[in-house]
Each structure stands twice: as structure tokens, then as C-alpha cells.
From TrEMBL:
PANTHER family: PENTATRICOPEPTIDE REPEAT-CONTAINING PROTEIN
Keyword flag Membrane: no
Family designation: Belongs to the PPR family. PCMP-E subfamily.
Biological process terms in GO annotation: RNA modification
Domain of life: Eukaryota
NCBIfam families referenced in this protein's UniProt entry, alphabetically: PPR
GO MF term set: RNA binding
Taxonomic source organism: Gossypium darwinii
Pfam families in alphabetical order: E_motif, PPR, PPR_2
Tagged with keyword RNA-binding: no
Entry keywords, A to Z: Repeat
Segments annotated as PPR repeats: 71-105, 142-176, 280-314, 482-516, 583-617, 618-648
Protein name: DYW domain-containing protein
């Protein structure tokens, strides 16, 4: 049954597509439909099926079969057959040929079939011509003809015309009302469908048939109106339609979409023991998918197994529902079993099943199997391509997503908005601004740039690529700014340290009536941590408590990090201890926070507890551990952690781990070991790792190694003033006046200038900012005496400040 429905749907879709062919539309637009000059009727244009009929019915050679015969029986029979088979163009050709051969239309009884055919072609202009034709002939008094006109206009999506026809009807029967109810539903005017249903039953006292009831129930499901759905259910019971298979599946779907699982189960249980209904696969499919959509996953699994035990053969929709179940359960083992079942039933080439399999394997972290299915499918289905590209982008395969997208573009042309969203996400994660700009141009060319989801993704992409100005421009042009768009802008500000703009956007967003969510507050807490402003962090924390989000894992993780960066490790620890649920990020964040504050014992104890909690340390965990060991000078512990990461946890160290180890060894004075480690790295060292080693060379006065390291640095970044100043200071410490002058002269010749140092402090909810060389603070006369006093106390305590060689001062500060 379902296969027949799908075939009919695709077949009518095929006909509609052909009706939109410019050459075929010309048949109806350039020639008056019922004029004598109907030259477009050609035997070759008929379908293969109708060709046989017209061969045997040669109107010119066999006068006895000419349409102008008294009853026109043969042609009428053809019209009925073609109409039933959905061969709408052929129906129209037969009717026009009948007119050409002098048939008396006043005696014609098959106008509903002809009108239905015009509706099947979804050609508004021609449909209005047949309407005018029957009006001229005086057939609008026939209720069957007018009912056909109603269906025709709805199929052409001309709701206004259908309503006008309905309002002018002198006589309305049950078909008229049911046509309106189902027509409004098919046109996605669900409220209109329900209003007609109410008008028919309450004001006119008529009872709709199963078609009208099904359309009304489906309308309730579409707008999730449980109250109206229950009323229609009562009407169905009252009129003895509760055993109709289509209505049963419609009621179950309505209750499931409205979240009323209990009533859906009641409807299902009331019919499941009736043999005639129980074997209906559609009802089982609706029930299983309803359980899945309402997250009753165990019940969905049990029902699927029960269906198989009752030997009810699943169809493609059943197996798609089962695969969606596996996707939500993240149960790869069950997914593989269903895959074997699909092969057993010979449904492996079904496009919907292939797409669901791809989705399941991706979500269950088995991407190679998903890609294998995709490659074998050779499908040009847009949904399948979108699923593969989107899942590749979401599952940390951004390069593959971009490669697949390029393949799609080369084969099939322009993408849809879903594909653009996926590749923009890939460009964001890889910070590929150039590629992102290409996608932006493509979005403009295809008109998808007006889609606010695409617009929000563009804001996110430019923000992650560091181009805040472009992100702002895109954001300002969005016609609709939802939470996603605001979050993209605020996160872009946060990640690029535009802290003032991030806070301003946070306020503007709320002024526009957009309520922030956990993602928004996580970004704002990141800003608080960057500013190290504890009072601002506490304000956001209070806001989160008022909103009831303090138990959210993402929010709690952000609070731990923010308080730690604001210097309040006690609050970080309290939040961590009070968390009801902890994930990998929670443990990594508290370990990093404790290491940042030098609480090594508590940090190590947390690392042990993390393992006891069943959390496996990852690369981020070891970055925090090694960084803490480096700052605390715990060389042995750091080396043990590094060894454990490689040997015990089988993790491949990244550049950041080698940077921590080089920093650890360098701070402890093991400069040669640190240099050997850099040279033996399997990955390419960056400027940070060489910079760390250069800093250690200065601390320990190793001029020879410092020059070697500096050469490596300047090869990577010749314009980096920070490292040149660091080398200059090292040489100054060693009294190498001539070399200092040489380095600083190079800085001046290259036109490089060092950004002045900046610091700030929070006192009584006010933030005081100080920039090197700036004497504009209004309390300057009070501040410097205190600094002098503190410096004196430091000297008395044994601190010897480093004094630069006055003879080596430059004319301009660097």
C-alpha cells in the first residue's frame, strides 16, 4: 500500500514537472484551448499506453468509432481510463480531439474527469480556461462539476479561487465540504481546514467522511493542537469510524506530535488485536516513530522487536524509523543488526534508507561505513548529499566536508541552504576566511544569503576568522536577528577579545527582547575571565541563578574558568563540588584552574578522582597538567605526566605539549635537553616554543643558545618585535652593549614598535587602567609614593631590581 502511494506521488510529481516544461506549457498558453485550430494534438506526443488506444481507434478511418457518434462511448471510456491512471495530458488530448470531430458537448458526462486532469497538471491558466468553458456551457449547476473545480484549484494552489467557487455554489454535498477540508490541509492552511470542519459540523449539521476527518486530524497534528484533536477523535468515535486504518494512524500521529504518548498508546492498543488492522505496517510505523520523536526510545525498540516477532514485514518507513532510533540511542551494535535486516529484505538501494544509514553511522562515530554507503549509492539525491556533507562538518571532518561540497558543485551545480550551512561551519572550524568568502559569494548568487540561518553562519564564520568588521556588516543587514545570530556576534567579539563590544552586544540583545541562553552566558563569562573583573563575573553568576541555569554543565564549566581567571579559585572549587553532572570539560577546567593557582596537591588529587569517575584524560587534560608543572617547577612530575600520556594513554603529543615540556626544562635550567627535545619533535615547532626557550636562555644567561634560538624565531617571523626585544634584553643583561645597539637598530630600521604595556585593577567595583608611560590617572600623586614605599620594602627584604644600562637607552622606547 505504501509502495503504491509512493509510486503515485512520484508519478504525479513527474507529470507536474513535465507540465512545467516550456514547450508543453506552450500547448495551453499560446493556443486557445477549445478553438478550432488545435494543431498541437499529435499522436507521437501521447504516452506509450495511450498510443495503442489511438492506433486502434482511428477516428478518420473508422467512422463507427468517431466521437460524434451518439454516445461517444469509446472516447468516454478512454477519458475514464486515462484519468484513473493519472495520464492527465492524454485525457485533455482525447477531449480536444472529440471537440474537433464535432462532438456535442451538451451530452458530455465526463467533465469531472477532464477538470481533474487540468488540476493534475497544476497549470493555473489552462485550469481557468476549462472553468470558463464549463461556465459558458452552463454546467456549473452540476454539483459534481463544481466539486471537481474545487479540487482543481486546490491542486493549482489557488486557494482564493477555490473559496470563491465554494461560496457561489447553489448546492453543496458532502464531497464539497470534504474537498474544502482536505484542500486547505493539502495547501498547508491547517487552521482553514479546521474552520471548515467546524462550520460543516456545528453550523450545518453535516458529518464529514473519513477523508475530511483524516485531513482535520492531520491539521491538528501539524499545528500540535491537542484540544481540537481530542474533539475530532470524539467525533470519529461517535460516527463509528474508529476502525478505519487511515484514521487510526492519523490519530496516533496526532497524539504523538502533540506529545500525548498515553492517548496514542490507547488508540493503538484498541485496534492492535483486530486482525484486519494489526497487519497494517503504517500503524506500527507511526507508533514507532512517535515513540522515537518523544524520546521513548526503549518503548520504540520493544515495539519494533514485537512487530518482527508477529511476522509483520517491515517496509522502508519502518526501517528508517528503526535507524533513527539507533541514531538517538547511539547504539552502533543495534544499527548494524538493522543494516543486516535491510540487506535481508533487499531494501539497501532505497534512498531514504541509505540516507538514514549514513546518518546513523556518522552519529555513532563510524564515518567510514557512512562514506562507503554513500559512494556505493551513486545517488544524485540532494538530501543524501546534504546529510553526508553536514555530518562530515559536524563530526570533525571539515576538510572532507569541503571536498564533498566541491564534488557536488562540479556534478550538480548550485547547493541548497543546508549544504551552505554545513560548509560555512567547516570554514569556521578551520578559520578558512578565503574559502568562507567564496561560500558567501555563492550564497549571494543563489539567493540563500537572505536565509537568516545562512546569515547567522556567515557572522559566525567571519568572527572565527578574526574579521569582526565583516561579521558586524553581515549582522547589521540581517532582516531577522534571532538568538543564534546574536550568539554568533557575541562569540566572535569574545574570541577576538573585543570585550567592550561583547558586553554592549549582550545588553543590546536583551533590549531587543532576545533572552540569552547558556551559549551566550558562556561567551560573556569568557569576557569576564579575560578582563579578570570579579564583580562582573559575580553579576553574570547572579543572572544565571535567577534564570535557573546554574545547574547547566556548560554554564558551570564557564563559571569555574571565569572565577579562576578572576583570581577566586575558592569559588571555582565550590561550583565544581556542587555540580550534579560533570563531563570531560568540567574535570579539565578545574584541573587547569588549580594548576593556574599553583595548588599542585589538589590538582593531582583531582586528576586521580577524574580517572576514578570513569573519565579518560585527553590531550587538553595533559596540557593543563604539564603547564602547571612548568610554572611550579615540578620537573619530575611533568616528565612522568608526559611519559604517561604517550605510553599509558597512547596519546600523540601536540605542539602545545612540547611547548610545556620545553618551558618546564628551560625554567629548571636544562637548556640543552630542552633544545634537543625541540629538534626531535615529530611536528614542526612554532614561534611559541622557540620563544619559550629564548626566555629560558635569558633567565639563565645562555648567550650562545639564545642566538641559535633567535635565528629559528626570525626565520618563522622576521617582524616579531617581542622576541627581538627579548634578545636585546638578554644581551643587555650580559653587558653586550654593541650587540644591543645592533639589535635595537634593526628594530628601528624595520619600523617596528612595541605596544606599550597595559594593566588594570578592580577597586570598589571600579576598574582602573594603567598604560606604560601614561601619567593621566587622576590619583597619580597618591599612587607613585605608594609604589616607592613598596619598592623600598622589597629591597629591604632582599630583592635586587634589574637596572638597565643607562648608556644603552634608545631615543625611542621599544
Amino acid at each position: 500500500m505504501e509502495a503504491t502511494k509512493l509510486f503515485n506521488h512520484h508519478h504525479s510529481f513527474h507529470l507536474r514537472n513535465h507540465s512545467k516544461d516550456p514547450e508543453k506549457l506552450q500547448l495551453f498558453s499560446t493556443v486557445p484551448l477549445f478553438s478550432k485550430n488545435i494543431s498541437f494534438i499529435k499522436k507521437s506526443s501521447l504516452s506509450s499506453n495511450s498510443q495503442t488506444h489511438f492506433t486502434s481507434l482511428n477516428f478518420h478511418e473508422n467512422p463507427s468509432l468517431k466521437p460524434q457518434n451518439k454516445d461517444g462511448f469509446s472516447s468516454n471510456k478512454l477519458i475514464m481510463e486515462f484519468s484513473e491512471q493519472g495520464l492527465f495530458e492524454d485525457v485533455i488530448r482525447v477531449y480536444v480531439r472529440m471537440l474537433r470531430n464535432g462532438f456535442q458537448v451538451q451530452d458530455f458526462k465526463f467533465f469531472p474527469c477532464v477538470i481533474k486532469s487540468f488540476g493534475g497538471l497544476s497549470d493555473v491558466k489552462s485550469s481557468r480556461q476549462i472553468h470558463g468553458h464549463v461556465l459558458k456551457l452552463g454546467f456549473l449547476a452540476d454539483v459534481y462539476v463544481v466539486n471537481a473545480l474545487l479540487g482543481m484549484y486546490f491542486k493549482c494552489w489557488e486557494i482564493k479561487d477555490a473559496v470563491q467557487v465554494f461560496e457561489k455554489m447553489g448546492e453543496r454535498d458532502l464531497v464539497s465540504w470534504n474537498s474544502m477540508i482536505s484542500g486547505f490541509y493539502q495547501s498547508k492552511d491547517y487552521l482553514g481546514s479546521l474552520m471548515i470542519f467546524s462550520l460543516m459540523t456545528k453550523e450545518h449539521g453535516l458529518f464529514p467522511n473519513r477523508v475530511g476527518c483524516l485531513s482535520a486530524v492531520s491539521s491538528c497534528a501539524s499545528i500540535k493542537s491537542l484540544i481540537l484533536g481530542r474533539e475530532i477523535h470524539g467525533f470519529v468515535l461517535k460516527n463509528g469510524l474508529e476502525n478505519d486504518e487511515f484514521l487510526v494512524s492519523g490519530l496516533i500521529e496526532m497524539y504523538m506530535k502533540c506529545g500525548d504518548v498515553r492517548n496514542a498508546e490507547h488508540v493503538f492498543n484498541s485496534i492492535v488485536n483486530k486482525e484486519s488492522v494489526r497487519v497494517n505496517t503504517v500503524i506500527w510505523n507511526v507508533m514507532i516513530m512517535g515513540y522515537v520523536s518523544n524520546e521513548c526510545l526503549s518503548k520504540a525498540q520493544e515495539l519494533f522487536v514485537e512487530m518482527l516477532e508477529l511476522e509483520i514485514e517491515p517496509d522502508s518507513s519502518t526501517l528508517v524509523a528503526a535507524l533513527v532510533l539507533c541514531t538517538q540511542l547511539l547504539d552502533l551494535s543495534l544499527g548494524k543488526q538493522i543494516h543486516r535486516l535491510i540487506l535481508a529484505f533487499g531494501l539497501e538501494n532505497d534512498t531514504r534508507i541509505q540516507t538514514a544509514l549514513i546518518e546513523m553511522y556518522f552519529k555513532c562515530c563510524y564515518p567510514e561505513s557512512a562514506l562507503k554507503i554513500f559512494r556505493r549509492s551513486h545517488s544524485d539525491n540532494l538530501v543524501m548529499w546534504g546529510a553526508v556533507i553536514s555530518n562530515s562538518a559536524q563530526n570533525d571532518f571539515p576538510f572532507r566536508a569541503l571536498e564533498l561540497f566541491c564534488n557536488f558543485m562540479s556534478k550538480y551545480g548550485f547547493p541548497d541552504s543546508q549544504m551552505l550551512l554545513a560548509v560555512l561551519r567547516s570554514c569556521s572550524s578551520l578559520a578558512l576566511k578565503a574559502k568562507g568568502m567564496e561560500i558567501h559569494c555563492l550564497a549571494v548568487k543563489t539567493g540563500c544569503v537572505s536565509d537568516f540561518y545562512v546569515g547567522s553562519s556567515l557572522v559566525d564564520m567571519y568572527g572565527k576568522c578574526g574579521d569582526i568588521e565583516s561579521a558586524q556588516n553581515i549582522f547589521s543587514r540581517l532582516r531577522f536577528r534571532d538568538l543564534v545570530a546574536w550568539n554568533a556576534l557575541i562569540c566572535g567579539y569574545s574570541q577576538n577579545e573585543w570585550v567592550d563590544e561583547a558586553l554592549a552586544a549582550f545588553c543590546d540583545m536583551q533590549r531587543e527582547g532576545i533572552r540569552p541562553n547558556s551559549v551566550t552566558t558562556a561567551c560573556i563569562l569568557s569576557v569576564c575571565g579575560h578582563l579578570s573583573v570579579r564583580i562582573l563575573c559575580k553579576e553574570v553568576h547572579c543572572f544565571l541563578i535567577r534564570q535557573g541555569w546554574n545547574s547547566n554543565v556548560l554554564v558551570s564549566n564557564s563559571l569555574i574558568a571565569a572565577y579562576a581567571k578572576c583570581g577566586d579559585i575558592n569559588y571555582s572549587w565550590i561550583i565544581f563540588e556542587n555540580m550534579h553532572e560533570r563531563n570531560q570539560v568540567s574535570w579539565n577546567t578545574i584541573i587547569s584552574a588549580l594548576g593556574m593557582h599553583g595548588d599542585m596537591d589538589k590538582m593531582f588529587a583531582s586528576f586521580v578522582k577524574m580517572q576514578h569517575a570513569g573519565m579518560k584524560p585527553d590531550l587538553v587534560t595533559f596540557t593543563s597538567l604539564l603547564s602547571a608543572c612548568s610554572h611550579a617547577g615540578r620537573v619530575d612530575m611533568g616528565c612522568n605526566f608526559f611519559q604517561s600520556m604517550v605510553e599509558e594513554y597512547k596519546l600523540q603529543p601536540q605542539v602545545e605539549h612540547y611547548t610545556c615540556m620545553v618551558d618546564l626544562l628551560g625554567r629548571a635550567g636544562h637548556l640543552s635537553q630542552a633544545y634537543d627535545l625541540v629538534m626531535d619533535m615529530p611536528c614542526e615547532p612554532d614561534d611559541r616554543i622557540w620563544g619559550s626557550l629564548l626566555g629560558s636562555c635569558r633567565s639563565h644567561g645562555d648567550e650562545k643558545l639564545a642566538k641559535v634560538v633567535a635565528n629559528h624565531l626570525f626565520e618563522l617571523d622576521a617582524t616579531s618585535i617581542g622576541y627581538r626585544v627579548l634578545l636585546s634584553n638578554l644581551l643587555e643583561d650580559l653587558g653586550k652593549a654593541n650587540e644591543v645597539v645592533k639589535v635595537r637598530s634593526e628594530i628601528k630600521d624595520m619600523g617596528l614598535k612595541k605596544q606599550p604595556g597595559c594593566s588594570w585593577i578592580e577597586i570598589d567595583n571600579d576598574i582602573h587602567v594603567f598604560v606604560a608611560g601614561d601619567c593621566s590617572h587622576h590619583q597619580l600623586e597618591e599612587i607613585y609614593p605608594v609604589i616607592d614605599s613598596l619598592t623600598l620594602e622589597l629591597k629591604q627584604a632582599g630583592y635586587v631590581p634589574h637596572l638597565p644600562l643607562t648608556t644603552l637607552l634608545l631615543d625611542e622606547p621599544v
